[in-house]
Amino acid sequence: MQSTPPIQMDSVTKKRALAVIFFIMLMDIIGLTILLPVAPFIVARYNSDALTITLLTGIYAAAQFFAAPALGNIGDRVGRRPVLILSVLGSAVGYFIFGFGGALWVLFVSRLIDGITAGNLSTASAYIADVSTPQERPKNFALIGIAFGLGFILGPALSAAASLISVDAPAFVAGGLALISVVVMYFILPESLPVERREHAPLSFSSFNPLVAIGEIARKPGMPLLILISCVFAFAFNGTNTVFSKYLGDKFLVDATQIAIALVVGGVITAIVQGLFVEKLVKRFGEKVMTIVSLLSLALGFLIIFAAPAFWWVYPTSLLRNGLGGFFWATMGAMTAGKVLPQEQGKLAGVNTALQSLMAVFGPVAAGVAYDAISPGAPFWLGAILFALAAILTLGIRSIRGAQPQQHGPEAVSIGGHA
After folding, report:
1. Domain CATH number, residue 316
2. Which of 23, 96, 137, 356 has its CA 20 to 30 A from that of 126?
3. What angle do CA 418, 315, 38 make, to 5 degrees?
4. What is the pLDDT of residues 262-301, one digit of tens each?
5. What is the pTM of this model?
6. Greatest Cα-to-Cα distance within the chain, rounded to the nearest angstrom
């Protein structure tokens, strides 16, 4: 029995489509990272607790948890393109509201709106899976890591420049970039999922229940362990990164511009490693080995950040945290996408986003509590322990290459990388 092949596109159309998807992901990540250096300073107008900052991330992730599986199911039925347009429009509205601000509750409303429509990266991942052969998946999913790398260069850099106008200006820049993405998608992006490949069962109440979708994916062979590894990673990753800027500011007394520069350096390293080395190293060592290397690099990198005596230590550790650590997106995306058929890639992406979002609720809240109640460095050594645990769990993955879903007739019946 053979697995269902990817969507057929000629090479020119596929390259153009992937270029547009990359642009959309890049604009989305720039929008997220442009707020990282200034968010603590905006929130500080109303409350200075680390927990308040992490709760702002938490409400976004909680909304995303409930909405993502529904968006994934809708994408499997109507196509990726309309879901992407809706999601990016929601991001634009959220960013503009965040920029206007005026009260703490307004900031929470802005993140709630963005979370409800947050299907940008998950639907883009499903699009990549639609058009990629199994051999192309590591290379094509590496586009996510490259987008993250460039996003962490351009986002903080734009933030530093815009914050010279006002601390709120970066939010308006993020909203403008989201609107540009909508225009590009509307006029250029082709649909990746033709009608004959779509899920034709009508939407039901269960289609909007994240627990039902998660249960369906979790019952697939090999998925429970992949889900667990992804969740442990996401819990630690979201927690450490949510308090990262505040930690640098509190411990080393640096300002938003210095933090932005550090994030830019990390982004440069991510982009270089993802662009030049992911495909080569994954081909040589395999997804499993490179996933373990990625997780152990993150563990070591954050332990060094915890123990760092001076701010400049942030720069060399970027090779571990951003460079090698960034392999996780490509390797985990490739491993999980290979376990479902094309008409389920949207469901897979939605479930993955929902689980990542759930961890983006608990991870940042736990990090905020640890930061306030234990010590500012606690989220980093605790995160290192969790990254190491995820690496140990990865040792239990049995089959990576060639693990394609089987098709048993026309009704034959996935989890991949952020938020």
Report:
1. 1.20.1250.20
2. 96
3. 55
4. 877 887 887 788 778 887 888 888 889 999 999 999 999 9
5. 0.69
6. 63
